[in-house]
């Protein structure tokens, strides 16, 4: 197998959506995969665009947002290596329900929708495995929504900071030690959108964390000084 295809297979293996696929089935996807590079700040696609491909993050950090009718943008997810987005493009031809952009310079593996649909038509057994993977993702999303609905604002914000700290470490933004400080390049407005609360509420909680020596806030970033202590605020 060509080196490029083998690299794509290894990346596909890390994606939970493809967890049920065998090596040969992953190779079929690798044959249609297209590597794409995006500079920081570049849009991958806009809300309302045609769904022409789904994407898997190979390197870097990407953000998925949705715009409100009043012009505000709400951050739905921040994604790192091994995560997939736009996957519904594999199954329908509907318009994009959100926008995606590169937070850092990054590389994606694109799976063109037409090629994937043709592959699924030829191999219906793969379709069944992907449906199972999508169901798992839906169940996980339901669990997250249920858990968040019972969490306080500080608990939600602390959980997001803990998750972003882990992702930053995984993407090379730290030395791998979960007790060492990590800098998250995200402002308070973005944190508020992720937590589903106001910027003022995030600001008050960050001030509390600063007094406790857990974080240090700066313009457009939050440095988590002791990531392991965030768990004391998650309940």
Overall mean pLDDT? 85
- Number of separate helices: 7
Could you give the count of β-strands?
Answer: 11
CATH class of the largest domain: Mainly Beta
Q: What value does the Rg take, in angstroms?
A: 19 Å
In sequence order, what are the helices and strands, one letter per element? HHEEEEEEEEHHHEHHEE
What would CATH call the homologous superfamily of the largest domain?
Jelly Rolls
| Stretches with pLDDT under 50, minimum 5 residues | none
Strand order, sheet with most strands: 1-8-3-6
Shape: elongated
Which class best fits the helix and strand makeup? alpha+beta
Q: Characterize the largest beta sheet: strand count, sense, and whether it forms a barrel.
A: 4 strands, antiparallel
From the N-terminal CA to the C-terminal CA, the straight-line distance is: 48 Å
Helicity range of the residues? 40-55%
Number of domains: 2
Percentage of residues in strands: 15-25%
CATH architecture classification name of the largest domain: Sandwich
Could you say what the CATH topology of the largest domain is called?
Jelly Rolls
């Amino acid at each position: 197998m060509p080196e490029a295809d083998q690299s794509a297979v290894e990346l596909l293996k890390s994606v939970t959506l493809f967890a049920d696929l065998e090596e040969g089935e992953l190779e079929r996807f690798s044959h249609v995969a297209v590597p794409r590079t995006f500079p920081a700040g570049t849009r991958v696609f806009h809300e309302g665009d045609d769904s022409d491909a789904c994407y898997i993050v190979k390197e870097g950090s990407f953000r998925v947002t949705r715009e409100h009718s009043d012009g505000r943008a709400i951050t739905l997810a921040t994604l790192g290596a091994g995560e997939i987005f736009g996957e519904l493009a594999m199954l329908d031809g509907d318009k994009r329900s959100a926008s995606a952009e590169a937070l850092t310079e990054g590389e994606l593996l694109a799976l063109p929708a037409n090629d994937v649909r043709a592959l699924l038509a030829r191999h219906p057994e793969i379709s069944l495995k992907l449906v199972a993977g999508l169901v798992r993702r839906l169940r996980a999303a339901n669990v997250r929504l249920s858990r968040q609905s019972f969490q306080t604002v500080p608990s939600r914000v602390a959980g997001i900071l803990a998750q972003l700290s882990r992702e930053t470490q995984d993407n090379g933004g730290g030395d791998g030690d979960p007790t060492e400080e990590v800098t998250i390049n995200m402002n308070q407005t973005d944190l508020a959108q992720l937590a589903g609360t106001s910027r003022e509420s995030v600001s008050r909680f960050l001030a509390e964390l600063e007094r406790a020596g857990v974080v240090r806030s700066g313009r457009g970033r939050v440095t988590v000084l002791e990531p392991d202590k965030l768990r004391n605020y998650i309940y």
